[in-house]
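This entry is set out below.
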Amino acid sequence: MKASATIVCLLAFVCATIRPAPAHADPLDGPTLLATVAGDLQAYWTATLVTRVPSYQGPRSIVSYSSRIDTPCGRATMHNADYCQTDDTIYLDATWIDPLLANDDYTPVAILAHEWGHEVQNELGDYDRSSEHPYLRALELQADCYAGLFLRSEHDQNRLDDTAVTEARRFFLSAGDPSPKTRSHGTGPQRLGWFNAGYRTASVDVCADVFRKEHAMPRIPDQ
C-alpha cells in the first residue's frame, strides 16, 4: 500500500472505549469521530449478531487515503468509500470525508455505517452468492438498510441527533443511480426507502426483505 494511506483504526474494538458527544453538540475532528463511530458499530453488530455470528470480529482495518491507492480489490478511487472483502478492510477517501466533517456535516457516519454493512454481509455469507447485477444492487440496498438500523440505535441512545439523521437521509436520496437499469446501487428513492426501513423498524429481518423484492433480486439457484 502506498504511503498516502493511513490506518484510522487497526482493530475496531480498540476504538470502543471512546464515547461520542451527540452530533452537532461539539464538532469533532474527522479521525476522532470515525474512530468513535467504528467503536459503536463494533459494539452494535457484536450484540446484534450474537446468535448468528458468535465470534463476530468486525472489519480488520479502516484505511483513510488522500490519493488513489491499490487494494487487493483493485484501485481505490477518489470521492468514494469501499469495503474490500479480500482483506476485510474499509477504505475511505479523506479528501471527501474530512471536508464534510469540517463543515459539521455528519454524512460520513452514514457512509461508514453503509460500508460496515457490507462487512456484515460478508460475515453472514451473503457476499458471494451471486454476481448478477440485480443481486449486487440488492446488496447495496441492504447495506443502506443496515445503516438505518445503526443510526436508529445511535439516535435512541442520544449519540446522534435529528439533524445527523436528516443528513443521512439526504445523502442516500442524492447518491442513487439515475434509473433502476444503471449501475448497481439503486435509485435515490430506493436507497432512502431501505435506509428508512431499517431506521423505522430497527429489525435485521426487515433488511432481509430486500432480497425478496422483485426489483432487487433475481432467482438464486439452490446452493
Summary: The longest strand covers residues 5-9. Residues 73 and 84 are 6 Å apart (CA to CA). The mean pLDDT is 81. Strands lie at 5-9, 61-65, 69-71, 74-76, 81-84, 89-93.
